[in-house]
Specification:
The chain is mostly helical. It has 2 domains: about 60 residues, 434 Repressor (Amino-terminal Domain); about 35 residues. It has 7 helices and no strands. The mean pLDDT is about 85.
């Protein structure tokens, strides 16, 4: 089974743990394909067209890159946090301290919005 099929099935099964409605037929209906077609996607015997991959990603709240195995980061929130963390890791310590000082300046000027 390929990465897409594995991740697709996992997305559905994770939701099914808290909501038993998430059957293959339910998801197929929501994304606009036949149940047999959706089952083939989960089994890895059929590959969905790109527009369907996007619909599936939106339905499950994950990125298409995650479904396709291009990243292990599931969604935009995780991606933003990951990019932010990596950005700071690449900076010298003094630059990170300057950013913290600037952040405090902005908070004092505009108020703490966190």
């Amino acid at each position: 089974m390929d990465v897409f099929a594995q991740r697709l099935k996992k997305c559905r099964e994770d939701l099914k743990k808290t909501n038993p409605n998430y059957t293959q037929a339910f998801v197929a209906n929501k994304i606009g394909v036949a149940r047999t077609t959706y089952t083939a996607y989960e089994n890895g015997t059929k590959i969905p067209p790109l527009d369907t991959v996007i619909i599936i990603a939106d339905f499950f709240g994950v990125s298409s890159d995650y479904l396709l195995g291009r990243t292990n980061i599931k969604n935009q929130g995780e991606l933003a946090a990951h990019r932010s963390d990596n950005f700071l890791e690449d900076l010298p310590e003094e630059a990170v301290k300057e950013l913290e000082t600037f952040k405090e300046f902005i908070r004092s000027k505009y108020g703490n919005k966190e």
